[in-house]
Amino acid sequence: MNLPNKLTVGRIAMVPLVVLIYLVIPQDFCVISATNGLALRDVLAFLIFMLASLTDMFDGQIARKYHLITSFGKFFDPIADKMLVNTMLILLVYTHQANIVAVLLMIARDLIVDGLRMLASQHGKVVSAGIYGKAKTVLQMFAILFLLLKNWPFVYLGLPLDQILLWLACLMSLFSGLIYFAQLKDFVLESM
After folding, report:
1. DSSP of 13-44, one letter per residue?
2. Which residues cross the membrane (predicted)?
3. Are 88 and 18 in contact (CB under 8 A)?
4. 72-111 pLDDT, tens per residue?
5. What's the CA gap between 30 and 10, in Å, rounded?
6. Domain count, the chain
7. What does pTM read for this prediction?
């Protein structure tokens, strides 16, 4: 297994770890009041999520630079991203840190796009992530990081950057989903 694929598998392995942290460590355990009430679980989740996000960036760069692109990587890299991001978003809704409507819209978009990709692959068409899909993922990752930090340091400026990023990620998610649908609508509509 090459390095990019190992990074992808490592990212998948971080998902149950962050879930375990959220479900085992109480919200009020070891709260750091100097940082706007950050709980230990938020700090640990932030560190794991940051590391996982960096592996996402590096596995793609390494794979392209050293021509290590594999079918395994093409298949599992987007799955690892969605597992990580959607799990974090669900945990943030569970702890009332993220808006449930925004999260449901983003997860629904992912399910629809994955269905469109499967349908296209049955017709021999491979659909890679486009620039808007990548922008959606980046916005989601930054939103999650700021949500985990309880909007630090922007909370002191009265700027809800965490919520702004969450809703921008939601809008980019819907926009990129419409683009995928426009590209692949012929596969959906052919049997109507």
Report:
1. HHHHHHHHHHHHS-TTTT-BGGGTSB-HHHHH
2. 12-31, 43-63, 83-108, 164-182
3. yes
4. 888 888 899 999 999 999 999 999 999 999 999 999 999 9
5. 28
6. 1
7. 0.91
User: 18: domain range?
Assistant: 3-189
Q: Which amino acid is at 158?
A: G
Q: How many CA atoms lie within 13 A of 183 on its CB side?
A: 17
Which residue do the tokens 């998902």 mark? Answer: 15
Longest dimension (CA), the chain: 60
For residue 125, count other CB atoms closer than 10 A to its CB.
13
Q: What is the CATH number of the domain that holds 170?
A: 1.20.120.1760
CB atoms within 10 A of CB 23: 10
Cα–Cα dist 92/25, whole Å: 14
Q: Which of 8, 39, 50 lies closest to 142, judged by CA?
A: 50
How far is residue 183 from each of residues 113, 117, 132, 176, 180, measured CA to CA in Å? Answer: 11, 10, 13, 11, 5
At which residue do the structure tokens 């943030």 appear? Answer: 92
Burial class of 53 by CB neighbour count within 10 A (0 to 12, 13 to 18, 19+)? buried
